[in-house]
Amino acid sequence: YPTWKRTLTRRARDAQMKRFCKAQAIQRRLEEIEVTFRELEQQGIKLEKLLREEGGTAADQKTQWMNQLLYLVQKKNSLMSEESDLMIAVQELKLEEQQWQLDQKLRYYMNKEESLKTPEDCVAEKEILAELLEVVNKRNVLIHIQEEKRLSEL
């Protein structure tokens, strides 16, 4: 192997490892969010019970419970937004991996000498290129969704 091929192989391996590590970090964060959701749900249930059961409670206490309940709802909405962002990131990682695999297949066919290509090779090359374009378009849609979400939050 020439040096440039070894370099490309090493870079591809490094990029794949980065995607894997990022996917693991996302999975851990999604699990943490799930646990936090359950905790917030339990706290919300307790506050709702307190609000419904305590008929003779002072208005100040009820106001405090309502404020706590609203805070829990706000926190839950924030976590849902983060979860949505993470799910988009997961989709993006999957598409990135798929793009890398298709790119490798396409390189195989493109590096093949034109005179040695069979008609099946030409068809496969065109199909892979079409798939690659589809994946790139899907990634573009995800980026557009993220940008719209970011702008709407501003």
Structural overview:
The chain has one domain (about 5-154). The protein is about 90% helix and about 0% strand. The protein has helices at about 5-55, 60-110, 120-154. The mean pLDDT is about 90.
Helix count from the secondary structure assignment = 3
Shape descriptor reads elongated
Please, how many domains?
1
What's the total count of β strands?
0
Structural class from helices and strands? mainly alpha
**Gyration radius, to the nearest Å?**
25 Å
| Relative helix content | over 70%
Report the major sheet. none
Low-confidence stretches: none
Q: Give the strand content.
A: under 5%
The helix/strand order is HHH
Mean pLDDT score, rounded?
Answer: 91
End-to-end distance, in Å?
Answer: 51 Å
Keywords: Coiled coil, Membrane, Monooxygenase, Oxidoreductase
Organism: Galbula dea
GO molecular function: monooxygenase activity
Protein name: MICA1 monooxygenase
Short description:
The protein is built from three helices and no strands. It is mainly alpha-helical. InterPro entries: bMERB_dom, F-actin_Monoox_Mical.
Identify the notable features of this structure and list them briefly.
154 residues; mainly alpha; elongated
What's the layout of helices and strands?
Layout: H1 3-53, H2 59-111, H3 119-153
Helix pairs in contact: 1-2, 2-3
Coiled coil: 23-50
Keywords: Coiled coil, Membrane, Monooxygenase, Oxidoreductase
Pfam families: bMERB_dom
